[in-house]
Design brief:
single chain, Helicase, Ruva Protein, domain 3, Ribosomal Protein S5, domain 2, seven-stranded mixed beta sheet, five-stranded parallel beta sheet, 30 strands, about 50% helix, elongated, AAA_32, ATP-dependent peptidase activity, EC 3.4.21.53, serine protease, Lon-like_helical
Length: about 850
């Protein structure tokens, strides 16, 4: 027995004693903060306590390689994002301003607009130059083509054509007259008819002529018709010559008319080769399509003395107009930046908002578009700088995550139409030039989302190689308290709130430890602190104070709890009314008060739960009723199974485990998970086995391992306060209290009323390191330790447990013998 493994690992634990009240709450010293109000403090900008994340951001922004984008995980609320944005702005100041990007018309393939990059800030100049060119040509070209010189040249061309046509017909007419034939123009064309004295002979008279004369006239007419046909066939050729000559004159006139405006644009943008290339394409297209330009310009002049057609106050024409093809669509411009890279946050990262979109206009029952209806996305606006995105928003928008990865891999922005991706649109659209992409993407998300995405999408590590893991809290010390006080001063000043006195700041610091769930830590969930400061400022305003006092902070905390605690109060009401059965006095066998935490909408509270146990002889199985009915989660089931390991390693070592036990959370109608009740389940199991009553004025929390060590759990403050509230409503007796793991003492930041009750001896918090301490406190008997003879001391809890287990084993053996002789059955 002396070499028993359980005995070798057992620790000798002293008796459980209530914690000193000073260990239940770590107060901040207002005098030690060294200021009267936050107005005396120097504000601190940026992030505090986040050196790990800052180092990651430094690497992510500094490595100029593909894939070194950032994924920021943790409690990345609005203030944290603002601080990250501030860091990125500092990094952006060291990066050159990116290029401007414009789209212009592709005169050869209009469905494929051309993207042109320009030096930062030059795109508006290009746009304005082309707009001024178009505006000038709208007036100049019609004027040139209406000038006397042009009209004279055009008239000469028309006159030459008419003269050539007239001369041909005149010669024909002369020859026809020699044979008394006249040429007549009819609705069907030209006709040759006989005449007398210059007048056509009526058909009856012609038919009355001698046959020989009629045949001679008809023969003459037939010969003349051949000449007429020859002339008529020449007319289209003469007309083509007229049109060619007119086109040549138009081109010469257009070249002269547009030469000076085009040259002005060229001089203005002489340092931009791509622009000059486009200007020459504009020149060629103007000359080629001058007729349409002149007609449209004439109509515009007739309809609008301002010289613009369909335009807005800035002289713009609506997409689809004759002048629209020469305009410039400024996609992104750095004109208003200070020579640094952009930092853009996209709050609604749909596919069009991310990669850009092509808009359409309804015209005469059809949807039309052109290059001027190309709109930029966040990738365009952030190109050359930094783009901030919420990971959950990107993942929940159709196609956005895939499009983002595709853009990062190809390093170019391709505008995609969602309707075309799913095959629901047959509208003819554009295929704009893709734009080269060079930016850093920063995704914000919680840790669970990041790790799930990393497991589900192996491409995540390809594109987001840097993880900035933000701390939830940092160590509490005089230095960090002072640092957080300065940060509080920064929030108050930035948000235009009243300054806060030192007492108020001390309470905020104490609340920061409460939020961190650790008296030795301060939370870094700065958005939650900002909300507290905003409400405290409101209450200070209501009270007419110039500074925010501790009473205002307390009022804000109490009001938040009041607003959030309806469900808690209803559950506690059920316990007080004995609808939910919880005893806070007396002692019962196989019954104990366990503690759990519920969290609803960010408000967590403790709820006592009765746990009961029944035992009988059996096959050594501890039945978890919660698991059997599928209400118990895997962690809870694990905790129950550990109980079997504890019993097997501690009791009846020379006999088979012959126990059948059932454990249940009474009046629990929802799911149960976590192992924080496993120590309570072990206590109630030992009580049922030893047939010893355990105190009902104590509630228990803590997990246990197979060796009997009580282990830390979460929500210890809420659990203690939950049982305290019930005891207070029923009347504190001075014997009530809560047993917690000794390792949770460092986490205690209890409410003032709980601490005060403990200080007055009306309530107690017991730190428990070993099951032996806990069962002794609950039963009033020592747990017992095996002596040299291998037995537990008589009268100890463990002696009673082992005796009961031995009795179960004997019963099982007796049933086995009876079953073997046919006189009974085995269980």
């Amino acid at each position: 027995m002396a070499n028993n493994p359980a005995e070798r690992h057992e620790e000798t634990a002293g008796e459980a004693a209530p914690l000193d009240p000073d260990r239940l709450y770590r107060a901040a010293d207002p005098a030690g903060l060294g200021f009267e109000t936050t107005a005396d403090l120097e504000p601190i900008d940026g992030l505090i306590g986040q050196q790990r994340a800052l180092d990651a951001i430094t690497v992510g922004t500094g490595v100029p390689r593909q894939g070194f984008n950032l994924f920021a995980i943790g409690h990345t609320g609005a203030l944290t994002r603002r601080a990250v944005e501030s860091v990125l702005n500092d990094a952006a100041a060291d990066r050159p301003a990116p290029s401007d990007w414009v789209y212009v018309n592709n005169f050869k393939e209009p469905h494929r607009p051309i993207a042109i990059d320009l030096p930062a800030g030059r795109a508006p100049d290009f746009r304005d130059a082309m707009r001024e060119l178009v505006d000038e040509l709208k007036t100049a070209l019609p004027a040139v083509f209406q000038s006397e010189e042009y009209q004279t040249r055009r008239g000469a061309i028309d006159e030459a054509f008419q003269k050539k046509q007239a001369e041909a017909f005149s010669e024909l007419q002369k020859r026809a007259q020699e044979h008394n034939i006249v040429v007549m123009r009819t609705p069907m064309g030209f006709a040759l008819v006989p005449s007398r004295d210059g007048e056509p002979i009526p058909p009856p008279e012609f038919n009355a002529l001698p046959e020989e004369q009629r045949e001679a006239i008809q023969k003459t007419i037939a010969e003349l018709e051949k000449d007429l046909e020859h002339i008529v066939h020449q007319i289209p050729g003469w007309d083509k010559e007229r049109r060619d000559e007119l086109r040549r004159v138009n081109e010469e006139t257009a070249q002269i008319a547009i030469a000076q405006p085009i040259e002005e644009v060229r001089r203005r943008l002489a340092d931009l080769p791509r622009v000059l290339e486009h200007v020459e394409a504009v020149r060629a297209d103007l000359v080629e399509n001058i007729a349409a330009f002149v007609v449209a310009g004439t109509q515009a002049e007739a309809g609008d003395s301002g010289g613009s057609s369909g335009g807005d106050s800035g002289g713009e024409t609506l997409p689809g107009g004759p002048f629209d093809r020469y305009q410039v669509n400024v996609l992104v411009s750095q004109q208003d930046c200070d020579g640094c890279a952009p930092v853009i946050e996209e709050l609604h990262p749909t596919l069009p908002n991310l990669t850009g979109r092509i808009e359409h206009l309804a015209r005469q029952g059809a949807l039309v578009t052109n290059f001027r209806l190309i709109k930029p996305g966040a990738l365009h606006r952030a190109n050359g700088g930094y783009l901030l995105l919420d990971a959950r928003s990107v993942l929940t928008e159709p196609f956005s995550w895939t499009a983002l990865k595709r853009a990062l891999r190809s390093r170019q922005i391709v505008i995609e139409d969602p309707s075309r991706l799913v095959g629901t649109s047959s509208t003819i659209s554009l295929d704009p030039d893709p734009i080269p992409l060079d930016l850093k993407v920063v995704l914000f998300g919680d840790r669970t989302l990041y790790y799930m995405l990393a497991a589900a999408d192996p491409e995540l590590s390809e594109h987001f190689k840097i993880v900035a893991d933000f701390e939830d809290d940092f160590d509490r010390s005089a230095e960090t308290e002072a640092l957080l006080a300065r940060f509080i001063a920064s929030i108050l000043r930035r948000e235009s709130m009243k300054p806060m006195d030192a007492d108020g700041v001390a309470l905020v610091l104490e609340h920061a430890s409460r939020v961190a769930d650790n008296a030795g830590k301060l939370t870094l969930e700065v958005d939650q602190l900002r909300d507290l400061l905003a409400e405290a400022d409101f209450w200070a305003q209501k009270a007419g104070r110039d500074t925010i006092a501790r009473a205002d902070v307390r009022k804000a905390l109490d009001q938040w709890i009041w607003r959030s605690s309806r469900v808690r109060d209803r559950l506690q009401e059920q316990i007080i009314d004995k609808v939910s059965l919880i005893d806070t006095q007396g002692a019962r066998v196989g019954q104990i008060n366990g503690l759990s935490v519920m969290s609803l909408g960010g408000f967590a509270f403790g709820r006592p739960t009765r746990i009961t146990c029944q035992v009988r002889p059996g096959a050594g199985k501890v039945i978890d009723i919660e698991r059997e009915v599928e209400l118990g989660g895997p962690l809870h089931s694990k905790g129950v199974l550990i109980l079997s390991g504890f019993l097997a390693g501690r009791f009846a070592l020379d006999a088979p485990m012959s126990l059948s036990a059932s454990l249940v959370f009474e009046q629990s109608y929802g799911g149960v998970d976590g192992d924080s009740a496993s120590s309570a389940e072990l206590y109630v199991l030992l009580s049922a086995l030893a047939e010893l009553p355990i105190r009902q004025d104590l509630a228990v929390t803590g997990s246990v391992n197979q060796l009997g060590d009580v282990q830390a759990i979460g929500g210890v403050n809420e659990k203690i306060e939950g049982f305290f509230d019930i005891c207070r409503e029923r009347g504190l007796t001075g014997t009530q209290g809560v047993m917690i793991p000794a390792s949770n003492v460092r986490h205690l930041m209890l409410r003032d009323d709980v601490v005060e009750a403990c200080r007055e001896g009306r309530f107690a918090v017991y730190p428990i390191a070993r099951i032996e301490q806990g069962i002794s406190l609950l039963t009033g008997r020592p747990a017992g330790e095996r002596g040299p003879d291998g037995n537990f001391p008589e009268g100890s809890v463990y002696a009673a447990v082992e005796a009961r287990l031995q009795a179960f084993a004997d019963i099982r053996r007796s049933f086995g013998r009876e079953g073997g002789t046919g006189q009974g059955t085995t269980s």
